[in-house]
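Task: complex structure prediction.
Instruction: return structure tokens for all chains below.
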Amino acid sequence: MPSREMYGTALRLARAFLIPALMAASGCSLHRPVGEVSRFAGSGKQYSDAVDALLAETGDTVVDAESTKLLRNRGPQGEDALRSQLEAQTEADREYLEELRLVRDQTRLLRAYFVALGKLADTDAATAIKPELEATGKGLATIGGKLLETDWAERADAAGRISATLGGLIVKGVQRAALARELRERASTITRALLLQEILLEEIRADLTQQYQIILDERYERTVAAPYADAGSLETADDISAWKADRRETIAARWELEAFDAATKAAQELRLHWASLCSGELEPEDVASFADDLGETIDVIDAFRDLRTDPKTSKEKADE
Amino acid sequence: MSSASGPLVTKKDTLDELRLVERAAYAAKTEKAVAALPEAEQSAFLSARQALSTGIRKLSKAKMADIRKELEANAKELSDGIDSLTKSLGDLEKAVRWAMAINKVVGVLGRVVSIFV
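Output:
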């Protein structure tokens, strides 16, 4: 009766090799649920999208700010001198925009990494393979039963279910092992990439703060200080009301640079969460809270977009 | 980060100083003082101020290039990671496709066996 012997041998082999292999693949190599990797990858992708949008807006903002300064430096220098300074600034702006484009390429590469990580974490291969293996196991047991004239056919359903469960576990194990290997091998690379993002965002923030501050100073002088010092101004109730509004706005203006603060904070948190993920200490609550922060970042980026052009005074707004 | 920390710090210090000068050059107080100067001096001031802004833009670009080069130095590792993740995903999907193919063969085999047994 080869069938019984074979069945027993198969069971012994399974005990000896398959079960330890499954444990090694699924339990011991990745000490965190695949879902956490998936959520983290989703946050990483969201972060990369937000920073990419921010960098795109930065280019427009910088060029607008430089245009404002060019206009303020347009005096009695003569045509040649004016053309020359315009060309020099245009060349500098072009180079800056090209640099920004190259930086955005790197942010997109980081995004591509998070997308690939998410795809592997989210794959439903373990589920998809089950019905196939169940049907195969059942079919083989049925065929075996017919060929060898045993009672295997009666156990075909059970054989199918066992095949499906074991197959699903093996695929899940392979998936977890691949994720664990990736986290181990890329731990320092991602940490470094996120640290560089922080440095980059801080630098751009310093640049834009300068641009906005110059615009803000000019606006304060034009809409608040000059009319106040001019004895012939601010005579009607409407003028006074507009002046008060402009004064309030210029004093309170923070120029929405929170977008950069929020993005820098997001990069920091992502880096810390990455470290926790790699060491197996990341909790679902951490990712949920980070996702909330990221939502705020995206909100302030939207606000930042509205601010790109020179701000209008209250009077200009009223005239519109 | 150590490879670029030197140049980054130097450029940062220079940029910080230049930004302070630029802000002062665009301040209302300065503009008022310049407006009182003869035309030739006004022209010289405006040209110099524009040159300062252009210089700051170039330095900002150079500083960003330092960071970008560091990012690019990391890029190969990131690309390797993407390749590795994509390959792992492909292997898993291949396993499912193999399972489907084998299941089909077993199905056909089962029908053949049913005919002869």
